[in-house]
């Protein structure tokens, strides 16, 4: 194979419930992950060793980024001994915004490099490697619409057509995920909402989605960054069916059922970075 190009898509969280703190220090969550067509592009070409280039760079040392860690993890398998590749990550997904760009790059690197090297790892091995790289990485092995539970490793794919146009607003505020979890003050546990049922009811019956979904990080993050609350309110003023923060922030999104309303909303956020996206459920591979 001469080369491979792949999409590493972003995601948003529709509902993000933090249920409990686990004995291993992680947290159990209950969330719907929706893959969207905002994506990084990853290209893989032959090389003697493993080289990963990120454009622009997202870490001080190239080997510290998740795509590089994924490549070296797969390359450490005995069945991949002696294999090499040059992997280039062209970044489009904003970093540190709750969109899962680094996790997606890692999963896409695993999938693409596994194909490029003629499948040294089976699906179970890929899942184990993805879980070792980060809580969100397993979802991106098969990005779609999914209920994500546990620490991110219990994934139930949902067969559903979403009628939404997604408008993202990226305010450029860094929110530390460990800090966000630490401020939740979780001492017990709370029950999980049936998010799949809520999603289907919201679509079928045109119900008010704001009563069905919540992001548990919003109160603590909004208290520190009031502009995020203002962005959420602006989405609703511009006719959003639902608006929320993705992950632990700081990206905000609005869901629209009308393309024209989505475009109007996208023009309402001044000089902030805005993206108009659609949900996706298709192949990683763009060409080879």
Describe the protein in words:
This protein is of the alpha+beta class. Helix content is 28%, strand content 28%. It contains eight helices and eleven strands. Strands 1, 2, 3, 4, 5, 6 and 11 form a seven-stranded mixed sheet that branches. A four-stranded antiparallel sheet has the order 8-9-7-10, covered by helices on one side. The mean pLDDT is 94.
For the largest beta-sheet, the strand count, sense and barrel status come to: 7 strands, mixed
N- and C-termini, Cα separation? 8 Å
Helix content: 25-40%
Number of helices: 8
Content of β-strand: 25-35%
Q: Which fold does the CATH topology of the largest domain refer to?
A: Ribosomal Protein S5, domain 2
**Radius of gyration from the CA trace?**
19 Å
- Assigned CATH architecture of the largest domain: 2-Layer Sandwich
Secondary-structure element string: EEEHEHHEEEHHHHEEHEE
């Amino acid at each position: 194979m001469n080369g491979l190009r792949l999409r590493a898509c972003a995601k948003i969280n529709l509902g993000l419930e933090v249920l409990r703190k686990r004995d291993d220090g992680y947290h159990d969550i209950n969330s719907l992950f929706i893959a969207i067509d905002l994506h990084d592009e990853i290209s893989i070409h032959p090389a003697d060793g493993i080289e990963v280039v990120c454009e622009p760079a997202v870490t001080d040392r190239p080997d510290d980024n998740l795509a590089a860690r994924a490549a070296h993890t797969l390359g450490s398998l005995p069945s991949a001994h002696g294999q090499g590749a040059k992997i280039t990550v062209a970044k489009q997904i904003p970093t540190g915004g709750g969109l899962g760009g680094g996790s997606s790059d890692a999963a896409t690197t695993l999938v693409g490099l596994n194909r490029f090297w003629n499948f040294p790892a089976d699906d179970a091995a890929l899942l184990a490697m993805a879980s070792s790289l980060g809580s969100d990485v397993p979802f991106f092995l098969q990005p779609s619409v999914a209920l994500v539970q546990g620490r991110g490793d219990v994934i139930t794919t949902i067969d559903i057509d979403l009628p939404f146009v997604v408008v993202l607003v990226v305010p450029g505020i860094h929110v530390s995920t460990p800090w966000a979890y630490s401020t939740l003050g979780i001492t017990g546990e709370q029950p999980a909402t049936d998010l799949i049922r809520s999603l289907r009811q919201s679509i079928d019956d045109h119900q008010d989605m704001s009563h069905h979904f919540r992001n548990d990080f919003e109160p603590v993050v909004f208290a520190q960054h009031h502009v995020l609350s203002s962005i959420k309110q602006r989405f609703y003023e511009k006719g959003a069916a639902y608006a929320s923060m993705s992950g632990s922030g700081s990206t905000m999104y609005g869901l629209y059922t009308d393309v024209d309303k989505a475009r109007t909303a996208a023009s309402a956020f001044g000089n902030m970075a805005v993206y108009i996206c659609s949900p996706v459920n298709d192949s990683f591979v763009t060409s080879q």
